[in-house]
Amino acid sequence: MPLISFTTHLQSVGPDEPKRYCGRTLGEVLEAVARDFPRLPGYLFDDQGQLRKHLAIFVDGAMQPRDQALSCPLTDDSEVHIFQALSGG
């Protein structure tokens, strides 16, 4: 099962340590996480069901484009890290 972890701020609405969830794609894994943490989707998804722009998602060390991330295939050994992207100057 893929291992998923969230940054500290998102741990207030999601898992507070890395946790394994079933899923063949990132979208499926996030659905599984949301069943355990119902407040999490409001931080991850906009009202159109798209990933919010303030997120950076890495799968097996590679940053995923937000518009393609939900369909990203995962293996049982995959590691997913979801970060809050920083902006500003």
Lay out the secondary structure.
Layout: E1 3-6, E2 19-20, H1 26-36, H2 40-44, E3 55-59, E4 62-64, H3 66-69, E5 79-84
Parallel strand pairs: 1-5
Antiparallel strand pairs: 1-2, 3-4, 3-5
If you had to describe this structure to a student in words, what would you say it looks like?
The structure is a single chain. With 89 residues, this protein is an alpha+beta fold. The chain has one domain: Ubiquitin-like (UB roll) (Roll). The protein has three helices and five strands, in the order E-E-H-H-E-E-H-E. The protein has helices at residues 26-36, 40-44, 66-69; strands spanning 3-6, 19-20, 55-59, 62-64, 79-84. Strands 2-1-5-3-4 form a five-stranded mixed beta sheet. A hairpin with a 2-residue loop joins strand 3 and strand 4. The longest helix has 11 residues, at 26-36. The protein is globular. The model has no long low-confidence stretch (mean pLDDT 93).
In short:
The protein has 89 residues and is of the alpha+beta class.
Write out key terms for the chains shown:
alpha+beta, single chain, 89 residues, 3 helices, 22% helix, Ubiquitin-like (UB roll), five-stranded mixed β-sheet
By CATH, the topology is Ubiquitin-like (UB roll)
The CATH architecture is Roll
Spans of at least 5 consecutive residues whose pLDDT stays below 50 are none
Radius of gyration: 12 Å
Shape: globular
